[in-house]
Specification:
Elements: E1 6-10, H1 14-27, E2 39-43, H2 50-54, H3 63-75, E3 80-82, H4 92-97, H5 106-116, E4 121-125, H6 128-133, H7 135-142, E5 146-148, H8 152-166, H9 174-186, E6 191-194, H10 197-205, E7 215-217, H11 218-229
Parallel strand pairs: 1-2, 1-3, 4-5, 4-6, 6-7
Amino acid sequence: MKSKLAGVLGGVGPMATVYFQQMVLELTEASCDQDHLDMLVSNHATIPDRTAFILGESRLSPLFDMAQDAQMLARAGCDFLVLPCNTAHFFYEHIQNAVSIPLLNIIEGTVSACAEQGAARIGVLATAGTVAANTYDIMCRRFGLSCIYPDAATQKQVTAVIYDGVKAGRHIRAKEMAALYNRMREEGCDAIVLGCTELSVAHRDLELHAAHPDVIDSLETLARRTIEYAGKRLRS
């Protein structure tokens, strides 16, 4: 059976897009080049900041650029699209309506993964834009789960890791990430979602998977769904 061509709406941010591609490669069961899935990647890094627009700090909407990129990938022959950015899913319905091919939803896939693992109370670490848009809480209610966002002081720390850390190219320390995880555990969360793909980058660089099995990485969840949707096999 011919596999589907994936179109990646990337550049939001650029490092997360690169890590997404690497995750897809590593998570695909492959013994040769041809076993991997085909991807067309638009690494559009100059798209206006999503969080700034959602919070009303900027009048520059990223929607026009993202919709145009989606249409470009559709015209190029992509069978479906993925958007490795949680905050940009504030515009999910508008982007999906701009094309006739499916756009996989990173938030739906991540919350579904939490439900499959038996989680009931999910702590979400994300940009202030994602928190303000409330996209995770809306999705959690569809699955019958509770969604917990950080308090103001913890959210400030999350924002610093994302913008002053990963996006700025600064090395993040393991104890910075562990402190965020522990804070959400103190709130009674039985699963912690990395709801920003820059947090996924830090988590992966620091190799924190084994030490924090209750942490669900939205970028990895999207990579797994992308492989399966394309008709390829997940590595066991």
